[in-house]
Amino acid sequence: MNGLVLLIAALMLFILAYFGYGRWLARLWGVDEKAPTPAYSLQDGVDYVPARRSVVFGHQFASIAGAGPINGPIIAAMFGWVPVALWIIFGGIFFGAVQDFSAMYASVKSKGKTIGYIIELYIGRTGKQLFLVFVWLFSILVVAAFADIVAVTFNGFTPERALIAANASVATTSILFIAAAVGLGFFLQKRQPSGYRSGVVAVILLIVCVTLGLACPIYVARNYWLYFVFAYVFIASVTPVWALLQPRDYLNSFLLVFMIAAAVVGVVFTNPTMELPAFTGFEVNGNYLFPILFVTVACGAISGFHSLVSSGTSSKQIENERDMLPISFGGMLVECLLAIIALIAAGSVAIGGKLPAGSPPVIFAQAVSSFLTNLGFPTEIVYTLVTLSISAFALTSLDSVARVGRLAFQEFFSDSSGLAKPDALSAFFANRYVATFWTLLFGYLLALVGYQNIWPLFGSANQLLGALSLLACAVFLKKTNRQGWMLHAPMFIMLAITFSALAVGAYKLLAKIPAGNFGVGSDGLQLVFAVLLFALGVMVARSGLSKLKNA
Q1: How far apart are CA 7 and CA 11, in angstroms?
Q2: If we measure between CA atoms, which residue out of 56, 20, 18 comes closest to residue 37?
Q3: For residues 192 and 126, what is the distance between their CA atoms, to the nearest angstrom?
Q4: Which residues of 17-32 are buried (b: 16+ CB within 10 A; e: fewer)?
Q5: Closest to 220 (Cα-Cα) out of 161, 146, 145, 296
Q6: How sure is the predictor about 417, in pLDDT bands with cuts at 50, 70 and 90?
Q7: What is the Cα–Cα distance from 390 to 397, expressed in whole angstroms?
Q8: What is the tens place of the pLDDT at every residue in 20-39?
Q9: CB 248, CB 58: distance < 8 Å
Q10: pLDDT tens-digit readout, 336-357
């Protein structure tokens, strides 16, 4: 199969979906350009801060993408490239983009509140509390998985203690990125520059950071980088969004443009051939196409984490309701395009139908750098920049999910009505510093087992969260007299997929006990998470479906 043909076909379908299906949904639900958004009506300088469409888009995309649209498709390619491509294209359009848009729309129309608040308002307080516990547990999984991914991309040594120059340069550049983002945040906040001026400043900062990173690599082992990552994420999750989150994501958006543009240029001019088989079978190495494919490819098709970003952070920064469609629906389709590119890249470097050794980000970086090397670009610089892009997105996802986990923890101990005075214990746990500490503590403990062990459970929990978010949005649309039938089929399909995946995962963990290879630490913790997520998901789904039926 020709990779360029697949890229063009996917791109055309995504464009048609945006201008056709996306705009139809916006008209059907009633996007009001004149309505004041929560970013203005509830502006607090911390979470509710209005920002330009380009800035919020950069935050939304960098947060939802991370390493997900690269990891998932490459891992799932064990089933062949055809089922992966079909799930990315049709799942992304009819499942993922609809979820992201409906979550952001429901949040903006509900004072910028999270999906948990929407569940309380339209389903009930018990459902909300169960959902918040689910979100908090899920946030811990995401923090653990992506913290490990970032630490690995920063790791300056091989197992044999040889130096890894590209990773060390990525680490230096990422640290400089953080400092540059703080400076850019104050510049944007105090000077209020035009979009052109802010873009020029951002590009200059980006070039300076990359140049210094290549010149001054920092060689530190993975375990020490984990300490740094969690210290940074703690600060980022409690800092006002304008001071770090918005400007860092804005800087990352330019890095994103480079990575996608570099990959597209490479595919267009090298015209790679997919060396992976089209389809390998319904069962591969003990993994079944259903449900494993659909929970492995999460980001890039549908991801429940997106609904947390759409309703937890991005909705509080929307300047005008018309920005919701390009930021949420459009942002998801761009992520789908990145997932297709990752699949093509992996397919181009496969040998004899098998992928080369290495993690998915490494395979992707090798493929894109080989594309551009064939066009005359320096291999070392291109490889470092692509690795930096992946690391930057993963770190941004950490920023967002730590804030989302913190908000869920706070919301669980808060009285959303504001009528009752919280007791001392509830007030203590509702403190943003305390909530962040407990979220990151459990995330760190789980990160010690490595993202490879967490990823299957993360995928199942992520997709179940997507199903529950679709359910909450369907109830919201029906209760507010809006059409929501297009959410019903994706919701029921995802419920079936994810409950099956969690059950299969728990069964595999339990099967290790008679064999004597059950790890009390890593396997036991994963089993506890799987059982808790399954039980919480069943209870929230039962409550929500009852409300949907009776609405």
Answers
A1: 6
A2: 56
A3: 43
A4: bbeebbeebbeebebe
A5: 161
A6: low
A7: 11
A8: 999 999 999 999 999 999 99
A9: no
A10: 999 999 999 999 988 888 888 7
Phi, psi of 163 (to 5 degrees): -80, 140
Other C-beta atoms lying within 10 Å of the C-beta of residue 198: 20
3-state secondary structure 466-482: HHHHHHHHHHHHHHCCC
Report the C-alpha gap between 472 and 316 in whole angstroms.
Answer: 19
Which residue in 145, 149, 79 sits closest to 359, CA to CA? 149
Distance CA 511, CA 548 (A): 37
Candidates 3.40.50.720, 3.90.870.10, 1.20.1740.10, 3.30.300.20; correct CATH number of 3-48+55-272+283-350+358-414+425-550? 1.20.1740.10
Q: Which of 481, 405, 463, 460 is nearest to 438 (CA)?
A: 405
Residue with tokens 């983002």: 181
- Which residues does residue 2 pair with via DSSP β-bridges, in sequence order? 273
Looking at every residue in the chain, the average pLDDT score rounds to: 86
Q: Which residue, chain included where needed, has tokens 């509702």? A: 430
Burial label for 46, CB within 10 Å (0-12, 13-18, 19+), is middle
DSSP-derived 3-state class of residue 218: coil
Nearest-angstrom CA–CA distance, 149 and 535: 28
Higher pLDDT, 232 or 522: 232
Tokens of 94: 């009819």
What pairs with residue 273 in β-bridges? Answer: 2
Predicted confidence (pLDDT) per residue in 443-463, tens digit: 888 888 766 666 667 788 888
| CA–CA gap between residue 164 and residue 156 (Å, rounded) | 5
Cis preceding-peptide flag for 291 (omega within 30 of 0)? yes
143-166: per-residue pLDDT in tens?
888 888 888 888 888 888 888 888
Length of the chain as a residue count = 551
Top-confidence residue, 184 or 320: 320
DSSP 8-state class, residue 36? P
The average pLDDT across 361-369 equals 84
> CA 297, CA 63: separation in Å to the nearest integer?
17
Distance CA 8, CA 2 (A): 10
Question: Do 467 and 539 touch, CB atoms closer than 8 A?
Answer: no
Position 422 scores a pLDDT of 67
Could you tell me the CA-to-CA distances from 335 to 77, 235, 303, 328, 403 in Å, in that order? 17, 27, 11, 11, 22
Asked if residue 479 has pLDDT above 80, the reply is yes
Q: pTM for the complete prediction?
A: 0.86
- Better-scored residue on pLDDT, 383 or 304: 304
Domain extents for the chain?
3-48+55-272+283-350+358-414+425-550
Closest listed residue to residue 471, CA positions, set 307, 310, 350, 316: 307
Q: Which residue has the higher pLDDT, 160 or 102?
A: 102
